[in-house]
Design brief:
Elements (H helix, E strand, L loop, with lengths): L41 H4 L3 H7 L2 H4 L2 H10 L10 H14 L5 H23 L19 H15 L6 H11 L7 H12 L3 H11 L18 H15 L3 E2 L20 E2 L1 H9 L7 H10 L6
Antiparallel strand pairs: 1-2
């Protein structure tokens, strides 16, 4: 059976096979852990609002949205598996988000959860388990940290009118859920940083993150860009430097001083940039998006 349609332009990454296609390429059925079990009978899950929400993410996440909904709401019928604890958290947030009044926000919310399932299924299959440090347990007087972060990710996805960003917001949710070195506060900080960045800025961070494998251009960035589009791209770089996401930091200009011109090859991730690059899984961002961001600066891709 042929694989499903290619991922949306601008980003790469692992794919889920559509529901029922257990032999589809790249993602194969895994062995279910003892904790993995069907939530309820298939006929009872078909019309659940949370399941419908994830399926409605198809305009952004593609045909794998239906398979992702099956993984969450009917795991015994799914071709791939994720942690039962993570699935339970996703069921909670999907059911709550199903009441959103704006249809396109429902699409983005469902897509973010579908992308979270896609990433988590790949991690599960590669032997990287969900965290077992209490992340999915309710705290005294409060719900589990996993539910707090899931709600925050869904809210960020709803607001993301540039829908290319939604994929990586979903990846953030799944990455945090298998990273015991991260707490909810740090995840929230990273999410707030991510919300303030444009798609082009995410592509620039992705380019800096893979600079050892694919070098950035040696040509200097324009100091006085001509077209407005080029000026805007140069400001994107400066804003990343101001946000302490890219080094070198912006240099103070003193009267009469001559500063060396900044080259794209000089750009590298700061500690904050490394965190954001990891949580958003920017290593999976498609190379075409990086080339497009560099072209906006008037630079070729090396």
């Amino acid at each position: 059976m042929p694989p499903g349609p290619p991922p949306p332009a601008g980003s790469g990454g692992p794919r889920l096979a559509p529901a029922g296609e257990a032999q589809a390429s790249r993602v194969q059925p895994g062995h279910r852990a003892d904790e993995d079990h069907s939530v309820t009978a298939p006929e009872e899950t078909a019309e659940l609002p949370g399941r419908t929400l994830i399926e409605q993410g198809a305009p952004v996440a593609g045909s794998m949205s239906r398979a992702a909904a099956t993984v969450v709401f009917e795991p015994s019928a799914a071709a791939v598996q994720i942690s039962a604890s993570f699935a339970a958290s996703l069921r909670t947030v999907a059911t709550e988000a199903a009441a959103l009044p704006v249809p396109r926000e429902q699409v983005r919310a469902g897509a973010a959860l579908a992308f979270a399932v896609e990433y988590a299924a790949t991690q599960h299959r590669s032997g990287r388990p969900a965290r077992s440090d209490g992340w999915f347990r309710a705290r005294p007087g409060s719900r589990p940290p996993a539910d707090d972060v899931a709600e925050a990710v869904v809210a960020a996805a709803r607001r993301s009118t540039d829908e290319r960003r939604v994929r990586h917001l979903g990846y953030l949710l799944a990455e945090v859920c298998c990273s015991p070195d991260l707490d909810a506060g740090l995840a929230g900080r990273a999410l707030r940083l991510a919300e303030g960045l444009s798609w082009r800025q995410l592509a620039l961070l992705a380019g800096a993150g893979r600079r050892e494998r694919v070098p950035l251009p040696m040509a200097p960035l324009p100091d006085q860009p001509g077209p407005w589009s080029e000026w805007s791209a140069r400001e994107d770089v400066a804003d990343l430097q101001r946000a302490d996401l890219l080094d070198p930091p912006l240099a103070a200009v003193r009267p009469g001083a001559t500063l060396p011109r900044l080259r794209a090859a000089d750009l590298r991730l700061t500690r904050r940039g490394v965190l954001l690059h990891r949580l958003l899984a920017l290593d999976l961002l498609h190379e075409d998006a990086v080339a497009e961001a560099l072209a906006a600066l008037g630079l070729p891709r090396s």
